[in-house]
Structures are given as structure tokens and as C-alpha cells.
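Q: What structure does this chain adopt?
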Amino acid sequence: MSRDLPSLNALRVFETAARLESVSQAAQVLHVTHGAVSRQIRTLEAELGVALFEKAGRGVQLTNAGRRLRDASREALDSLRTVCAEISQSQVSAPFLLACPGSLLARWFIPRLDRLNAELPALNLHLSASEGELDPRKPGVSATLLFAEPPWPADMQVYPLIAERIGPVFSPRYGRAASIAEQPPSALVNEPLLHTLSRPGAWADWARALGLEPQTLRQGQGFEHLYYLLEAALSGLGVAIAPELLVADDIANGRLLAPWGFTETSNQLALWSPSRQPQAQVRELANWLKVNL
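A:
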């Protein structure tokens, strides 16, 4: 026995006309012409080899076969509508897992989390932080926010946000803060510089951008991750190298000083998402980030 179905569009049109018992009303509900509804019904009758409607005065009425098909198609279409609605709702309410560096989460994201949740209430954002290397292809991760250098991989949808800018920062509590703040950047050759093991070349990149010889810089205390490096700088332990985004709030409230400003690097902060994943919510988050960064 064949399991082939007749045209699903024709079945949908028939079910509407059968439910309303009117071709004209079905045309109005479906936003098509009376002739279009009639053609779909004739197509369905031809495929089934049986009449579904018959004349009744100035209108039509269902035949016995038509009533049977009406009941079956109504039940099937109602079931489909219910399942589609449930699937759609589950997608809306499913957690959107965003991975990002822990330092970015602590210093930029958390202070703005209330605003994000208020402005994107349907996102159902969950955050996963790491100070190690982030894997944007990790199963379960909806998107990853990270600094990286183009070109972007072909299997990822990448939304560039802003260029990275780095520069030296130190606390007013640092013992030599007053003496070095008024000097040119070359004054740092005499300072033991705080650095991070997760990005050992940051000081050298900054020095080259300013025309300084990287080998003249003296490395001081090292820290495994950027978050600890910035905490050390805030505690007055020395001069650290940091992305502007992560210290902008501390500079604005006077907790850190950045007398020489910040220098752009080849990295960009971007939102990464696997290309196979639906992108609507990712784009929504990317647009929000662009406005608020």
C-alpha cells in the first residue's frame, strides 16, 4: 500500500474550507482568491479519485468522503500546530550559553548584566567563563566572546565588535606613581613590569608600537591570568599591561591611571558562533554588544 500523501497545501486549503463549509470564507481566511481555493480542492479530488464537496442550494456541503477527510486532516493539522508551537517555544526558552574570558566577565560583563537582561529578556543568557584557551566549537556553547586576530575560520560565523587597544596602567597607590605619571613612556624601562603568562608578548607588542626596544623593558612579577594581573595593579604592586576595555571603568573612577593611553593591536573582540547554529539570537547579542561597548 502506498504511503504517499496528496499535496499538503491542498489538504490545508481543504481543511479550512471544510471547517468553514464555505469556499468563499476559506479564501478570505487564507488570503487567496476564491478560484485558488477551488483549484486546490479540485486537485485534491483528482488525486483521491473522489468528490469531497457537492452542491447544496447556492453553496456546497461535504460528501461522506469529505467529512472523513475533514476530521482526519483537522486532527493531523492540529497535532502539527501543537508540536510546532512546542518546538518553537523550547527554542526561545532554551539557555543561550555564552563563553568568555573570566577577566572580561568580571570587569565588563557583570557590571552590565542587568542592562543586558532587561533589554534582551528572551535571550535567557547563561555565562561560562574561563581564563584558559576558549574553544568556540565546544558542544553546548551558543557563542564565544574573545579577542583574536583575523582571518576568521570558515566554519564559524564571526561578528567583529571592536579593535583591541592595550596600554600600561597602574594604581595611584603604586609607590612610584607620581614620578612616572609625568614622564614619557620610555620611563617604564626602569620599572619592573607586571605581566601575564597567558600573554607573554603583550609588553613587547606595546613597546614596538611606540618605537621602544622591547629588550629594554624589565619584567617583574608574573601572573598566570589577566584577572590576577589586574588585581595586582589595583593593589599598587606595579605597572601592568591591559586591554582598555577591561580597565576603562577603573580609570573612570580613579582606581587606575593610564597616562600614555592605549595602542591598537591586530586583535579584535568578536562574537564567534558555529555556522551550523541558528544565528538570530547571536546577531541580536552582537548588535547589543556593538551599541554598549
